[in-house]
Amino acid sequence: MAEISALKAELRAGRLAARDAMSAVERIEKSLQLADHGLAAIELSPGTVVSGFLPIRSEVDLRPLMAGLRGRGARICVPVILDKERIEFRELLPDTKLIDCGFGTSAPGLEARVLYPDIMLVPLAAFDRSGHRIGYGGGYYDRAIARLHDQGRDPRLIGIAFDRQEVASVPAEPHDIRLQAVLTESGLHSFDTRLDRNETSLFR
């Protein structure tokens, strides 16, 4: 287990360094490309709850995609760190006032409604072609998804990354939850056999 953790830490550091090396202009351009692909490929109905996230450090800027999905009738929410173990998802409206939530994050305050995602746009440090991801090391999303499963909910899990965050293989552990797809600037790439329209089956 310690060996797997060390390997994950190495892969995480390498892919985050590659992401950090992108210029601000390149990140903006690729975030817009990602948004275009996501709007073309993610199917939803009015009222579908989609969790996104507000960018920190060199993450993909999901705000254009979240705005576009809201325009198609989705309800958008973002994660809020409650403590060292838990996050919850609060509704993000165009006029929502954001508060500082620690670790460089901001999110809606207590007055915002707590939502339960039908589709989760999941941040990550690294991913492979089997749908395994390496997060930032806190385990917040693994625990949040496990709680949703315990409640009988089964959100669709779409990782969000730049292409350069792909690795050959992510060492999987029992608690790791596999993604159904990853959305990057090159498209929405599905890892299951139940493909939605406009999706590709695997990376080319």
From TrEMBL:
> What is the required cofactor set for this protein?
Mg(2+)
Q: Which GO terms describe its molecular function?
A: 5-formyltetrahydrofolate cyclo-ligase activity
Q: Which domain of life is it from?
A: Bacteria
What are the record keywords, sorted? ATP-binding, Ligase, Magnesium, Metal-binding, Nucleotide-binding
Is this entry keyworded Magnesium? yes
Source species of the chain: Pseudorhizobium tarimense
Which family is this sequence assigned to? Answer: Belongs to the 5-formyltetrahydrofolate cyclo-ligase family.
Write down the NCBIfam families for this protein, in alphabetical order.
MTHFS_bact
The molecule here is called 5-formyltetrahydrofolate cyclo-ligase
- EC number(s) for this protein? 6.3.3.2
For this protein, what reaction is catalysed? (6S)-5-formyl-5,6,7,8-tetrahydrofolate + ATP = (6R)-5,10-methenyltetrahydrofolate + ADP + phosphate
